[in-house]
Amino acid sequence: MTVKPGKIMINRIIAMMLIVIVALSGVSGASLINIMIIKGEEYQTKASEQQLYDSLVTAPRGDIYDRNMQVLATSSTAWTVYITPNAIKKIKKADERDRVRDTIAKGLSEILEVEYDTVYANTDKNSYYVIVKKKIEKAKADEVRQFIADNKLTKYIGLDETTKRYYPNDSLASVVLGFVGSDEQGLSGLESYYDNELTGIAGRVVAAKNALGTDMPFTYEKVEEAVKGNSLVLTLDSYIQYTAEKYLQTAIEQNQVAERGAAVVMNVNTGAILAMAVKGDFNPNEPFVLSSVDQAKVDAETDETKKSTLKNELLNRQWRNKVISDSYEPGSVFKVVTAAIAIEENLVNKSNTFYCNGHTSVAGQRYGCWRSFGHGTQSLEQAIANSCNPAFITIGQLVGVNTFSKYFKAFGFAEKTGIDLPGESRSTYHKQENMGVVELASSSFGQTFNVTPIQMMAAVSAAVNGGYLVQPHLVSKTVDQNNKVVSTTTTTYKRQVISKTTSQTMRELMGFVAQNGAKNSLVPGYKIGAKTGTSQKVSKIQATGDTYLYIGSCMTVAPIDNPEIAVLVMLDEPKGSNYYGGVISAPVNAKIMADVLPYLGYEPSYTEEIKKLAIDVPDAVGLTLDEAKAKVTSAKLEYKIVGGGDKVIRQLPEVGNKVSTGGVVILYTEETESAKVTVPNFTGYTATEVNTTAAKLGLNIEFSGNIAIAGLKAYSQSIASGTEVDVGTIITVYFCDETAVD
């Protein structure tokens, strides 16, 4: 017999059920409150991390152009290779999981040249995104893609597109451009100084991913495009930069320069830097790679700590911009400034004379002249052309400490120039309160104080440009990714240091120096102003005991009657047979000017004598033999016929070259082997001797150096002696006055 529950029992059951339901609801509600409200943000973040793939898209860095819009630095597409360890962990079978990890580690370590153990360890990390290697180029990226496809590893390996900085001209202007780090941040040079302008705005990609961690872009994807950084348009000219570096490098090798060299080309009126060369430098595509010579020094060191220290020192040395970061004693180039001060203050003029017997004394301190028996009585022009220290000590004493110190500051030597590069050094000099007549004496001819080459460039520019101290600069404008101008650099005149009248006198003095002192700086067909300098590195001599420590330098300006272009060359610690700036640096100035002035549109004005030494080779190809003979003869050149034909099919030298009077044009009338001749050693020959020797051998000569000046002799040639060349080949022979001093 079934007993039905009573009403009381039913009510109790219902009550109990309600209690259980309420209790469960309370627990569930509390749990939901905890999940959704109290810890809602935390759980939402975890869910997003598991369900969304958030990746930054690297913004292309702005480009760097020269003044003709030739690319000096740009950012090209590269790829970052990554793995997804959490996806690997989803593989259920342990042996299959281990096989995948091993395959990934082996393949990527071989392709990307990274350590197997490192990659293998990364495959076990708790992450959906672990970078294996950044910034690989297309060829490597394609290898990785093929590896992924061959081994069906799409779920576990991926590639993200990014950018890589690229310098198409390798080491050209490297110390100016600088380089970037692994995250595309500027670390030196313009890359560092203008890092904010060059850095773009990163983009972002947010995409859904499945349980294995792979993307599901069609489910959800949000893209914020990256914005390219602004680009720089420089005042640098690639051709002028290349010219300066080429001749500077040759001079360093020929003169065995131990502490590098520098050359600057600047517009004296605007401060625009057309070239800034420092050798030895580096390749910004591989900034942490030393030159073979420096690497050999590192390899020779056995102590690991010392090896690391040495490598860091050598790396910093090759990155260092000698023009702005290394100060030096300018030597006699500074006499331009001393003369300008004295003339501006009406203390001396071109009618004054100065007597030199080979030495002078100031407060018991004896100073000698480079010419031990002295220069005798000399005018101001002669004193600066002779680079006579006693004469300039006399001028310095006339100026006095207070006036000298005032102008020293006015010419910009007591402050940085403000050039748009990082790492500019300050000068070290005698402060006015600490300067006595002895310090004034040595300072008047450019010693016992240090300035930077860029300060010296700015000061001499002020001396010749009408008296205005102009701020040097490298960037002319910045443009955005649409080439719209964002900002423009205008000429900045800091102050007028001397009058236009004094500046005119300084131009005349520098022109006189080039003609009568710094003859190796002359360029045929152009009016050049110059001043050379040679200084001892006194502090280093005292520290090392090595007395053969010099800096040879030269400053040239052209056209000196209406200046625009200035060139400063300095060679630090030449170890060759000569160290005078007038012998080792001035010829470099001349070579740079000889290439730069015609390039910039300055037409040469040759004397009849010089014209004979620079004859344009006529075009005889396609002419009959009689026509070709007449054309070559009318150009005052000789000819030699090779072959039995009646029409010229080839000639050597080719049209467009220049040779000297008496040069030989080889006229080929049929295809045949060119006759060969061995190049002689022209070193020490006069221009006439070079021409005569070359003519006998059937070689053609192009002269470099103002050979119209008596006494100049050949010191270098473009093709080494002993080399076998075709008859008719042009050899450039360089001349200088090896008796020049200072």
Can you describe this structure in just a few lines?
With 742 residues, the protein is of the alpha+beta class. The protein is 37% helix and 23% strand. It starts with 6 loop residues before the first helix and ends in a 6-residue tail after the last strand.
Descriptive account of the structure:
The protein has 26 helices and 31 strands. With 742 residues, the protein is of the alpha+beta class. It folds into four domains: 7-38; 53-233, Penicillin-binding protein 2a (Domain 2), CATH 3.90.1310.10; 324-599, Beta-lactamase (3-Layer(aba) Sandwich); 608-736, Trypsin Inhibitor V, Chain A. The strands form ten sheets. Strands 2, 3, 4, 5, 8, 16 and 17 form a seven-stranded mixed β-sheet that branches. Strand 9 and strand 10 form a beta hairpin. Helix 4 packs antiparallel against helix 6 (138-151).
List keywords for this structure.
742 residues, alpha+beta, Penicillin-binding protein 2a (Domain 2), Beta-lactamase, 4 domains, seven-stranded mixed β-sheet, five-stranded antiparallel β-sheet, 26 helices, 37% helix
CATH hierarchy, class of the largest domain: Alpha Beta
How would you sum up the global shape? globular
Low-confidence stretches: none
CATH architecture of the largest domain: 3-Layer(aba) Sandwich
Averaged pLDDT, please? Answer: 89
Count of runs of 4 or more consecutive helical residues: 26
Radius of gyration from CA coordinates: 37 Å
Distance from N terminus to C terminus (CA atoms, Å) equals 135 Å
The CATH topology assignment of the largest domain is: Beta-lactamase
| CATH superfamily membership of the largest domain | DD-peptidase/beta-lactamase superfamily
Q: Would you report the number of β strands?
A: 31
* Helical residues, percent: 25-40%
In this structure, how is the largest beta sheet organized? 7 strands, mixed
Structural class: alpha+beta
Strand content: 15-25%
Number of domains: 4
